[in-house]
Amino acid sequence: MVDDEELRRRLTPDQYRITRCGATERAFTGPYWNEKRAGLYACVVCDKSLFRSETKYDSGSGWPSYFAPVDADAIAEHRDTSHGMIRTEIRCAGCGSHLGHVFDDGPRPTGLRYCINGNSLTLHLDEADPA
């Protein structure tokens, strides 16, 4: 279990609000929505590997979008009935942090769009990619 007081000190207010309270950042405002560098996206809370840059694509939504996680065990799905709709919420399987939602309007090969709050992620750049 992640210590809440330590997280309040370590995370920015937006990171805490999104990962611990299930909030959503406004479109086109969070980090990584327009990121092009190669690397591995991990949970900002526990550093669990979540998405590879090779699966990232421009969905036009204003949030980082991926067509697949690094593996099926990286994320946990939960039914979300908030805001008068039924969606599938995505959480980090390592620590339970809110990441975003998954939709079935993504590109091949999966047809899925993992729409993720940039503030829930940290990017570990590939060494071969100049920063």
Counted beta strands: 9
In whole angstroms, how far apart are the ends?
33 Å
Rounded to an integer in angstroms, the radius of gyration calculated over CA atoms is 14 Å
Low-pLDDT stretches are none
Largest beta-sheet details: 6 strands, antiparallel
Helicity range of the residues?
Answer: 10-25%
| Number of helical elements | 2
User: Helix and strand succession?
Assistant: HHEEEEEEEEE
Mean pLDDT: 93
Shape annotation: globular
As a percent range, the share of strand residues is: 25-35%
Strand order of the largest sheet: 3-4-8-7-6-5
Structural class: alpha+beta
Key structural traits:
131 residues, alpha+beta, 6-stranded antiparallel beta sheet, 2 helices, 9 strands
Describe this structure in words.
The chain is α+β, with helices and mostly antiparallel strands and 131 residues long. The chain has 2 helices and 9 strands. A 6-stranded antiparallel β-sheet has the order 3-4-8-7-6-5. A 3-stranded antiparallel β-sheet has the order 2-1-9, with no helix packed on it. The mean pLDDT is 93.
Summarize the structure.
This protein is of the alpha+beta class and about 130 residues long. Helix content is about 10%, strand content about 30%. The longest helix is centred in the N-terminal third of the chain and has 9 residues, at about 15-20.
List the helices and strands and how they pair.
Blueprint: H1 4-10, H2 13-21, E1 39-43, E2 49-52, E3 56-57, E4 65-66, E5 75-80, E6 87-92, E7 98-103, E8 113-116, E9 121-125
Antiparallel strand pairs: 1-2, 1-9, 3-4, 4-8, 5-6, 6-7, 7-8
